[in-house]
Every structure is written in C-alpha cells, then in structure tokens.
Amino acid sequence: MSGEILINKLFAGKYLDEGENIGHEVINLFKDDDGYNNLFITPSGHVHGHNIESIIFVRNTSAGRTVEVIGRADDIYSISSEEVHRIKYGGVLIDQIFKNNTYRGEIDTFSDHVTFRARSFRLPSRRIFITIDDDFTSDEYVLRLDSNKKIIIPQGMRMYYSESGDSNAYRQLKDFILNNELWEKDNTTEKLFVDGNAQGVAPSFLEIIRKEDDENIFSNLFGYYFEYSRHSFQKFAADILDIPDMSIFFTVFRETMNRVDLWIESENDIIVIENKIKSGINGISSDDYSQLNKYHETAEKEAKKQGKRTHYFIFAPNYAKFDLAPFGMKGTYKIIKYGDIYDFFIRESATYIADRAFPDFVRALKRHKLSLAEFQFDTMRSRLLRKINQLQ
User: Fold this and answer.
1) Which positions ≥6 away from 314 have C-beta within 8 Å?
2) Are residues 166 and 241 in the same domain?
3) Does some domain include residue 185?
4) In the 8-state DSSP scheme, what is residue 314?
5) How far is Cα 115 from Cα 333, in angstroms, rounded to an integer?
6) Mean pLDDT, residues 18-30
7) In this structure, are 12 and 83 located in the same domain?
8) Higher model confidence: residue 362 or residue 111?
9) What own/partner pairs with CB < 8 Å and gap ≥ 24 does 213-220 have?
10) Same domain, 161 and 268
11) Is residue 381 part of a domain?
C-alpha cells in the first residue's frame, strides 16, 4: 500500500464541552516522562487500513476549507497496550489522567489512549495556513492546496491524502513537510515537570481556584482595575469605548442597577456593560434578550431624568460569536473583544506595576483573546496540568 499523509483536526467536538473532560489529543503536543511523543488521532483514536507516513495536526478556522497547522509527526509506529498503560506525564499514569472523563453523563470506559508514537515531531516555525478557499488571505504563510476534494477536513476530523487518491495535493503536502524553513529545527514540544507545570510556568490564581472562565470574577476584576487608576480608565474609555471626554469622576456599580454587570456613571455619562464569557460561545439566549432590553430601558429612563448620555457594551472573548440582530439590539450594544481589552492593559501595564494580582489578571485576559481552536487547546492544557497536580 502506498504511503499516505493524514491531516487530523484537534480540539473540536462536544466531547470537550462535557464536564471537565480532558481531550485525549492534548498528549500530542507534550512529551511523556520518558521523552516520547505519543499521538492520539481524533476522534476515536483508531486508525485501520491506512499506511500513514506523516501526520499534520491542524485547527479548523473556516468550515473545513481553511486550517491552521499545529504540528507535524513523522516516522510513526504503533506500541503495545502494555506500553500504553505504562506511560506517565508528570509522574502520573495516563490511565489515571483520563479515568474521570465522561460520555453523555456516564464515566467513559475508553482505554485506547494512544494511537501511535512518533520518532520525529516538529512545531511550525511561523503561523501556517492550508486552504482550498480562493478568497482566503493572510499575511502569514499560506499553502493553497490543489486538491480534488471540496474540503480539507470533514466532520470526521481527518482526511487522508495519497499519490493515487489526490496526487497534486499529496505532492504539495510532501514538499511542505520537507521544507525545513517552515518547521522548528528541533523537537520543541515540552515535557511536563513533576509539579504539573510545563516549563515551570505556575498556574495563575484564577486557574488554581478554577475561575478562569467565570463571568462574575472578570466583572469584579474589571470594576477593580477601572477604579484602580481613573486616569487610565479615561484612556480606556477613549481608546476602547470611543468616549473621548469621559470624566475622571465616576462610580462603578456591580450588579446593583437592575443586575447590570457593570454600570459606570459620571456627571455626564451612563455606561452599561454586559460581560459574556461562557454564554457568549453559543450565542445570547432569549433570557439575555430580555435582560439587554431591560438594561437599555433602565439606563434610558435614568439618563433622561438626569440629562446624561448612554453607552452600551458587551465584553466578549475573541472566540465568542453571536448576532444581536435577532434580539433587537444591533446598533445599540457595541461588542468589545477581550483581545482589545488585553492589548490596552498591556500598553498601560506600568500603571499597575505595584498591584501583585495584575500579572495574573492580564494572563487570564490573554486566554480569552485566543481563537476558538486556540482556546480549546489552552483549556485542555489547563485541565491536564490541574489533573496531574491533583493526582501527584
């Protein structure tokens, strides 16, 4: 059988959204305690009837027609079930790491944690996209695949390319893999240390208390740092909220004005901020529709009574996608991405240098400026590290 190149999509599917499940594919980007790169091929871990010579791991970016490359594995081989069950990460057996995963509410009895082992694993030296979409553009490296397929990655999360099945695409992928300028010279995947951290990076305080996705926590942090430096908030209002003449004299209310996440009031302005993290991923629900309208009505009445201007915002992670039009609020609420908030606080970081919690705050913000695929990997990495810490 002729050789095949497998493109495999990672960190996708409802399995990752169930409870605290750790996606098996998270092992693909770490070395085990013995320095091996073990691989799990999503979605099932099983590969039958294929002669794979190389695997390109990707994130989906656009309906299966454009993907971003995560890594590349070559010279792969199978290992025995006995060897799999001896694998450790951070001193913890792989069986222990995944044993509390659930499937449809029940403990998942899946035990085939490793599909292959790779003698060679390389990460991209730069951002790389593979596309069959003629309209896709990027300042990064783009491989435009001359394929007879309509999509690069189907819902099954994997696609095989061979000389006989898709010759032009196969040759392009072969040359792409052999182009050393596009790949790190050495295997730079990390080994997990015995304290459960990769490269000695300690978990943030929000990771420790498992609140890195908590909307209320972030709203409290926003309120705190807005009041920490009123001059800095003036800049924030001008640069991010497009309020160029915000007064330095303002008050921040947390869920006291009709349970608005953040109600900021000065002598001239009322600012209404609804903060969305988890709920933003799947869109705004009908309950949130009534909330947004209620906030608008309350603020408008108050502003009319006091002769003030009103401003409405939704703070949302970069990976969140929702449309306000069905809820009658398009053009009323402006969506502010966490990435823009993160960039602002980085620019103003000297202002907060004396605050010991600030580094963890911006680190938590950075997590939510990721794309959905990057966020999913970051979530899986955090869960993996947390599980290892718990079991040590």
Assistant:
1) 273, 274, 275, 276, 280, 324, 333, 334, 335, 336
2) no
3) yes
4) E
5) 47
6) 86
7) yes
8) 362
9) 213/277, 213/278, 214/277, 215/261, 215/275, 215/276, 215/277, 215/278, 215/279, 218/275, 218/277, 218/315, 218/364, 219/254, 219/255, 219/261, 219/262, 219/273, 219/275, 220/254
10) no
11) no
Q: Find tokens 């959905």 and name the residue.
A: 372
pLDDT per residue over 162-210, tens digit each? Answer: 999 999 999 999 999 999 999 999 998 888 764 544 444 566 788 777 7
The mean pLDDT value of the chain amounts to 87
Residues 28, 175 within the same domain? yes
Same domain, 24 and 84: yes
* 234 pLDDT higher than 50: yes
| 138 and 13 fall within a common domain | yes
Instruction: Assess contact for 305 and 205: CB atoms under 8 A.
Output: no
User: What residues form DSSP beta bridges with 102?
Assistant: 107
Average pLDDT over residues 269-297: 75
Its domain, for residue 346, covers 215-376
Joined together, the tokens standing for residue 68 give 């971003």
Query: Does residue 206 sit within a domain?
Result: no
Q: Please name every residue paired with 56 in a beta bridge, in sequence order, or none if there are none.
A: 7, 72
Taken in order 207, 209, 214, 219, the sign of the CA dihedral is negative
Task: Please count the structural domains in the chain.
Answer: 2
Task: Report yes or no on 197 lying in a domain.
Answer: no
C-alpha–C-alpha distance, residues 110 and 115, integer Å: 13
